[in-house]
Write a sequence for this structure.
């Protein structure tokens, strides 16, 4: 069944907002930033079976920026991995849905929270698939700020050297990190050149344009070359007063702000 | 121990196709036979221990039992968070192998002195520490780990260690292994973990009428604490010995295990390295004596 990824992304945003509002949790800006990428991956690109989360042939997805977990929990509920009612246990005592992505939730491969862990772990999965002759792919979604972590650059070198063309990394390049802009913290540019120099096939897209995202995911890389997609995004995308603001890396929306955000998304 | 490790690993890998070896650009003269026989299961991750450990966890999540291999603190402290979060928290079958446990690389300086490693691994809830006392215990530990894949740390000495068992012993986590001396209740025990078994045996053999027996505990960790009280209670006194700092080491682990039983902690004497050894440089033997665990 064809999934309307635009509608899926809108639902992800709505669910994510409700979850952080109820739990008084942080990181809504980060979740809104990746909602379109998540919708396109789960709705169109990846081979998954929500009825069998551990299906051997599934593509593997790793959220390295684990703090944006509500977007993933939401898509898992929308696709039927978990019940939508469970989403509202987010942040509750003993809930499997902790405030960073948790492998105790069906459909989640790997828990993160500390940055710089997803890509090395994904490299191991991709290497295992190669060595075992498996066809599935590994997708790792990273933040731009987490590229400060040296472990990512170790993994980038390794993946190119070992010709892991079954590995796809996506950078959520919203250009804002914890205290300030990426540019003012540790400037990443020229980022495309850096990834190219590390031996990856690089493409740049508007991370909120589903056609551009699908085209980039579907594009063939040269044999033996891992792929990286730099997705230019807007932190807080979809809620006007949250966009491009460090504040919404931390602040949970009040009930009034939630109402305003949901109204904007209803009209989107 | 290195040679016993690679020989046993190769034998086990012939039977078990899930065994993989990932090295951090170290192991010259040791790992080549594995690499030649199992090229699809050997990876040199380069000088990049964070990625080495992360990718090992990723491979383990797809069914492999991965051995990461390097020397001293490189496969442990350098990538401590990958071990904590990726391996231990996800309960994956990765065995971190460190060559040069204790002060085996004494002349190479503090960077190469693995004297705080027990402290790192013993505070991880799913981690099993394997600290064999001789080459036969290395083989025993490896067989156990392959049969019981889990997050684990294998601490090896270097090369040329003597053997103190007649055959490969049966090892069980938390269970003391009898090596020499009397077996009766009420005995005094010199309890070693890791390569200090040689020091313990030297003391026993040097004594004309030893009033103690020598035991080794090659497999231990947080989960093995509950088994200790019964074994301590069977002894009059337990003198632990280890080539690790007092703090967070093997003896303090045993003291913690005993602390819930009134009276048992008083039976334990801890012999471990004192902090004077930190930053000193010399042979393993000289540093062990400086640290306070030499012959008596």
């Amino acid at each position: 069944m064809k999934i309307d990824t635009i509608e899926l992304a809108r639902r992800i945003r709505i669910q994510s907002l409700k979850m952080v509002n109820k739990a008084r949790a942080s990181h809504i800006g980060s979740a809104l930033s990746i909602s379109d990428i998540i919708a396109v991956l789960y709705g169109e690109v990846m081979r998954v079976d929500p009825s069998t989360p551990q299906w051997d042939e599934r593509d593997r997805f790793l959220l390295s920026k684990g703090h944006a977990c509500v977007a993933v929990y939401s898509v898992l509920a929308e696709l039927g991995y978990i019940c939508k009612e469970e989403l509202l246990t987010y942040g509750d005592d003993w809930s499997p849905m902790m405030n960073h992505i948790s492998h105790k939730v069906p459909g989640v491969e790997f828990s993160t929270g500390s940055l710089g862990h997803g890509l090395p772990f994904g490299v191991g999965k991709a290497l295992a698939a190669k060595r075992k002759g498996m066809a599935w792919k590994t997708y790792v979604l990273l933040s731009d700020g987490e590229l400060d972590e040296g472990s990512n650059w170790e993994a980038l070198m390794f993946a190119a050297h070992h010709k892991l063309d079954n590995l796809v990394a996506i950078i959520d390049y919203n250009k804002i990190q914890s205290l300030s802009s990426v540019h003012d913290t540790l400037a990443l540019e020229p980022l495309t050149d850096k990834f190219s120099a590390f031996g990856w096939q690089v493409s740049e897209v508007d991370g909120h344009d589903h056609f551009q995202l699908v085209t980039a995911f579907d594009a063939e890389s040269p044999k033996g070359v891992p792929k990286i997609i730099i997705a230019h995004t807007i932190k807080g995308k979809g809620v006007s007063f949250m966009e491009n603001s460090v504040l919404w890396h931390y602040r949970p929306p009040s009930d009034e702000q939630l109402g305003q955000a949901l109204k904007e998304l209803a009209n989107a | 121990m290195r040679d016993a490790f690679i020989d046993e690993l190769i034998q086990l890998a012939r039977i078990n196709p899930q065994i993989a070896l990932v090295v951090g650009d170290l192991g010259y003269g040791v790992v080549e036979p594995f690499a030649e026989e199992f090229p699809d299961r050997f990876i040199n991750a380069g000088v990049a221990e964070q990625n080495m450990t992360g990718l090992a966890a990723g491979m383990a999540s797809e069914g492999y039992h991965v051995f990461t291999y390097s020397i001293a603190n490189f496969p442990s402290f350098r990538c401590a968070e990958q071990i904590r979060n990726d391996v231990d928290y996800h309960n994956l079958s990765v065995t971190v192998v460190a060559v040069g446990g204790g002060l085996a690389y004494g002349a190479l300086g503090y960077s190469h002195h693995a004297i705080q490693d027990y402290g790192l691994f013993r505070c991880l809830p799913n981690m099993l520490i394997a600290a064999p006392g001789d080459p036969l215990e290395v083989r025993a530990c490896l067989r156990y780990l392959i049969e019981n894949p889990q997050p684990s740390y294998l601490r090896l000495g270097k090369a040329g260690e003597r053997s103190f068992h007649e055959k490969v012993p049966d090892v069980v986590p938390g269970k003391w292994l009898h090596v020499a001396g009397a077996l009766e209740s009420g005995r005094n025990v010199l309890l070693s973990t890791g390569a200090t078994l040689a020091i313990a045996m030297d003391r026993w053999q040097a004594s004309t009428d030893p009033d103690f027996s020598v035991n080794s505990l090659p497999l231990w960790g947080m989960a093995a604490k509950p088994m200790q009280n019964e074994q301590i209670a069977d002894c009059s006194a337990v003198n632990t010995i280890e080539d690790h700092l007092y703090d967070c080491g093997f003896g303090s682990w045993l003291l913690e295990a005993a602390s819930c039983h009134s009276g048992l902690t008083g039976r334990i004497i801890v012999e471990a390295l004192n902090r004077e050894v930190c930053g000193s440089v010399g042979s393993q033997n000289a540093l062990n004596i400086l640290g306070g665990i030499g012959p008596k």
Remarks:
- The radius of gyration of chain B is 18 Å.
- Chain B has a mean pLDDT of 96.
- Chain B touches chain A at residues 40-41, 43, 45-46, 48, 50-51, 53-64, 81-82, 85-86, 89-90 (CB under 8 Å).
- The domain at 2-155 of chain B is CATH 3.40.50.970 (Rossmann fold).
